């Protein structure tokens, strides 16, 4: 099976997501990211999560990619639970579940924590989807399709590529330390933080030398990044927006408008309308 | 080169943005993203806020050395490091003003007061500490917790927790790594063609 490199990993070449224009992938990220902002209702955010996981399956993204984010998601869960349960505040109308010392555990704070976490989970899945299906070239093509200035699209592409270069440099520095018998992972956290200074100075110095090389390479080819003259865009010419792109983006825009309308005119998107939370509430209170 | 000469632009000197500035801007985003992701993954507090974020040092020194190129790079690389740390896009967008001010304020102070980036005098250290360690992070934290609270991601009662996490988590690395970077690299950078004396060149 042939794989194509993406920002976060690899994707099979036969993935249907490759048939979409890179601009569609970018707008998908932007439009879908607004959904969890508008939706407080845990039910609808969960539906969004399920639909997005279906997109993962459709795009042939290996779900094992989510493994890298497990620790992060657990940390976020932990922080949200503590922040809302113990520091969520209390009002007379709240339903008290229990008291732990000076802290009042109320159902309203627990419900809010559940709603916020599902919202965050949805948002994180959206980002992971974009990073798993897009390449640096896609971002460049998307910007050039939008007729962004050449310097802007060049800088965007170089910045994404430079992350990989910075990671390589970072690993080289770590190997150099190991070769000098410095095992940073075995040091206490405060020592590790101190030693981080050993990385950041050479990383920036290498960046400057690389900047010189890149700038000289560009200037020696007579390329003027700020030139207003129209350039033949070979990369972007390989892509064209098709009917499926327009249909897909129109559908997303329509859903967004519906959500906006619902947000402004009704309470259907509010957390108080959530059936799942009402079920959990009845279970918690009865126990 | 005295501190006055560092920022001084003579009448014959023609400074304009060039290829080197665009390249430095792009590469600084990469370095900042790696530095930022390291901290966010090390001691995460949630929503991309961390107990220790070395990325702020890159924001501060980037703005001081490279003017608006560094300030914008410092405001944009958190989009990448926050994504890697598990913060949704709208949270990163909400943080944009905070990340902008964290790079812009030190850049403004150093240029207005003609502070030497090489930190040769005690007053240079004082200006660095109040502008790039304390005030910029207080302003950044104020905006960030307001945005998180407006989005309903944190409660009013938990604002002090996230505010102090942001301020201390940014202030400590800004102090330690900012000074290390300025002392070790400023002498080279002020003579480099990428050094920005005004705002874009």
Structure description:
Chain A has 287 residues and is mostly helical. Chain A has 2 domains: 3-134 and 243-286, no CATH class; 146-237, no CATH class. Chain A is built from 11 helices and 4 strands; from the N terminus they run ββαααββαααααααα. Chain A has helices spanning 22-38, 42-58, 70-87, 107-133, 136-145, 150-179, 189-195, 197-220, 234-237, 243-265, 275-286, and strands spanning 3-5, 10-12, 96-100, 103-106. Chain A has a two-stranded antiparallel ribbon with strand order 1-2. In chain A, β1 (3-5) and β2 (10-12) form a beta hairpin. In chain A, α1 (22-38) packs across α5 (136-145). The radius of gyration of chain A is 24 Å and the shape is globular. In chain A, 31% of the residues are buried. Chain B has a two-stranded antiparallel sheet. Chain B has helices spanning 3-7, 19-42, 55-84, 89-112, 122-150, 159-189, and strands at 44-46, 49-50. In chain B, 71% of the residues lie in helices and 2% in strands. By secondary structure, chain B is mainly α. Chain B is globular, with a radius of gyration of 17 Å. The model of chain B has no long low-confidence stretch (mean pLDDT 89). Chain B has a single domain (3-189), classed as Arp2/3 complex 21 kDa subunit ARPC3, CATH 1.10.1760.20. In chain B, a hairpin with a 2-residue loop joins β1 and β2 (49-50). Chains A and B meet through α1, α3, α4, α6 and α7 of A and α2, β1, α3, α4 and α6 of B.
